From TrEMBL:
Pfam family, any one: NIR_SIR
EC number(s) from the headed UniProt entry: 1.8.7.1
EC class of the enzyme, as a word: oxidoreductase
Protein name (Swiss-Prot/TrEMBL): assimilatory sulfite reductase (ferredoxin)
UniProt-listed InterPro entries: NIR_SIR_4Fe-4S, NiRdtase/SiRdtase_haem-b_fer, Nit/Sulf_reduc_fer-like_dom_sf, NO2/SO3_Rdtase_4Fe4S_dom, NO2/SO3_Rdtase_4Fe4S_sf, NO2/SO3_Rdtase_FeS/sirohaem_BS
Organism: Streptomyces evansiae
Family label: Belongs to the nitrite and sulfite reductase 4Fe-4S domain family.
Keyword Nucleus among record annotations: no
């Protein structure tokens, strides 16, 4: 049984008499809800031993419910949705009625960095243990489905044999560290954040000091001027900037996050050199662990603390109680020059070779395809690949004379290197196929929407993002899309409840970061969706002025 860690001396204060927000730093160590209780009872990281020694041998029915629906997430495992349960039952059924005896297993790919050997192993696991499934997520991870508990130790053995892991891929933990997919290779790079990502992996991931956070903690690091890791919506982000006096380093952001109460991150006005990024990361995650709200799950993300404190107080507590020094003031990042930040297409690297970004539809690939991508990359002299936060992939280090052949090979596999704006800009979350929280289907609908729009609007030539979500939880970033679609049940023309979407219009990251407007009363049935999107886009095409981008 793990006790809560002791807060730093400077913050040992007398517990207030009322329950407050459950912050450890002000003395509230008594768990105020079931999640806090199971985390206090036993560290989520400890469940691995039980999976290896008991559950994988005795089977699904032997799993303790607090492990099944709680601690197994610390190792990237969620039960998936029992097939055949429609979205109307999601909020009605008990968790055990929704649980299938198969799992989703998330593999963390920090920085989106993969070798061909790692991708081959992912492909093999997918084919052998996951019925061929392997989705690319919008956090650079890979997710398998249909995983049996009996197979988990062998899957870990294979992943870890090539340096991959599922440690803290889910749960109230430091999740995968997002990184620029072109770190270390881009011609226009301000600074390569890779050493900082590796240092954070070493110091933070799997460290019991940070394995009981109030909720998940998302990190993003990019030294690309394209701002290519959605830094605005992470709990902590380091964004490449050039300090006028000290040179390249990172601008520090905290408190971003979407879900049902979205907030953009705020700048602390601090410049962090590469070698201090991990220290500052440890400082911020410690503030979150100690001061983060633990009473209500709905207020337990860092964004609520940052919103209540403001940037100035947050920076002061970070400096005075955790870093024990002042941070250097620094500049804001410049606006990115391009709207697409996904690196799709053929681009020259700073070493003269090329990288090639390509677009699966809505992140859906499979084990066979992943193995073929690994073979294709290797056959073209590449050993490195990257995943992006737009559910896309890159092959790095290709000699100029081999680019054409690689592009042809990818397109033969169904992956376009010059995709339509619809294929390029449409993302979809897991949805009702596997997710227990889902209300509607997303992946097949997203793919069908792409096909329809390509057929109906071949002339459309603007960057455009369409994000399809299966419920209000915003895993596919509903609020920051040009067209955000939130899955819910709606009434059709005959008054029947059917799957559909609440529409959000005009969200964006980067140049004009902001949340889309929920269009009052604008809900479309899933069946009407292609017609609706076509109407919106045709109106834009008819009315747009010179240089006007799509912003519905
Ligand atoms: Fe599941 Fe909802 Fe997240 Fe989609 S947005 S993956 S349906 S929780």
């Amino acid at each position: 049984m793990a006790d809560a860690p002791t807060p730093p001396a400077a913050s040992r204060r007398k517990a207030s008499r009322h329950r407050g927000e459950g912050q450890w730093a002000v003395g509230h160590f008594t768990p105020l809800n079931g999640n806090e209780q199971f985390k206090k009872d036993d560290d989520g990281l400890h469940v691995r031993t039980r999976i290896e020694t008991i559950y994988s041998k005795a089977g699904f029915d032997s799993i303790d419910p607090n492990d099944l629906r709680g601690r197994m997430r610390w190792w990237g495992l969620y039960t998936q949705r029992r097939p055949g349960i429609d979205g109307g039952k999601t909020a009605i059924l008990e968790p055990e009625e929704l649980d299938d005896e198969y799992f989703m297993l998330r593999v963390r790919i920090d920085g989106g960095r993969l070798t061909t050997a790692q991708l081959r192993v992912i492909g093999e696991i997918s084919q052998e243990f996951a019925r061929g499934t392997a989705d690319l997520t919008d956090r650079q991870n890979v997710q398998f489905h249909w995983i049996r508990i009996e197979d988990v130790p062998e899957i870990w053995r294979r992943l870890e044999g090539v340096g991959l892991s599922t440690t803290e891929a889910c749960g109230d933990t430091p999740r995968v560290v997002l990184g620029s997919p072109v770190a270390g290779i881009a011609e226009d790079e301000i600074i390569d954040g890779t050493p900082a990502i590796e240092e954070i992996q070493r110091r933070v991931i799997g460290n019991p000091e940070f394995s009981n956070l109030p909720r998940k903690f998302k990190t993003a690091i990019s030294g690309s001027p394209l701002l290519d890791v959605a830094h605005e919506i992470n709990d902590i982000a380091f964004v490449g900037v050039e300090h006028p006096q000290y040179g390249p380093g990172f601008d520090l952001w905290v408190g971003g996050g979407l879900s049902t109460n979205p907030k953009l991150g705020v700048r602390l006005g601090a410049w962090v050199p590469l070698e201090e990024v991990a220290d500052v990361h440890v400082g911020v995650i410690s503030v979150f662990r100690d001061y983060g709200y633990r009473r209500l799950r709905t207020r337990a993300r860092l964004k609520f603390l940052v919103a209540d404190w403001g940037a100035e107080k947050f920076r002061q507590v970070l400096e005075d109680e955790y870093l024990l020094r002042k941070l250097v003031d620094g500049p804001a990042p410049a606006e990115p020059v391009a709207r697409w930040r996904d690196h799709v297409g053929v681009h020259r690297q700073k070493d003269g070779r090329f990288y090639v970004g390509f677009a699966p539809r809505v992140g859906r690939v499979d084990g066979t395809l992943l193995s073929k991508i690994a073979d294709l990359a290797a056959a073209h002299g590449s050993d490195r690949l990257r995943t992006t936060v737009e559910q896309k992939m890159l092959v790095l280090d290709v000699a100029e004379e081999r680019v054409g052949s690689l592009v042809a090979g990818l397109e033969a596999l169904g992956f376009q290197v010059t995709p339509s704006p619809f294929r390029r800009g449409t993302m979809a979350c897991t949805g009702i196929e596997f997710c227990k929280l889902a209300i509607v289907e997303t992946k097949a609908r997203g793919a069908a929407l792409i096909d329809e729009l390509e057929r109906r609007l071949p002339e459309f030539d603007e960057p455009l993002t369409i994000h399809v979500n299966g419920c209000p939880n915003a895993c596919a970033r509903i609020q920051v899309a040009d067209i955000g679609l939130k899955g819910q049940l709606v009434l059709d023309g005959e008054g029947r409840q059917v799957e559909g979407f609440q529409v959000h219009l005009g969200g964006a990251l980067g140049l004009e970061a902001g949340f889309g407007r929920k269009v009052r009363g604008l809900k479309v049935t899933a069946e009407e969706l292609p017609d609706y999107v076509e109407r919106v886009l045709r109106r834009y095409l008819a009315d747009r002025e010179e240089g006007e981008r799509f912003a519905a």
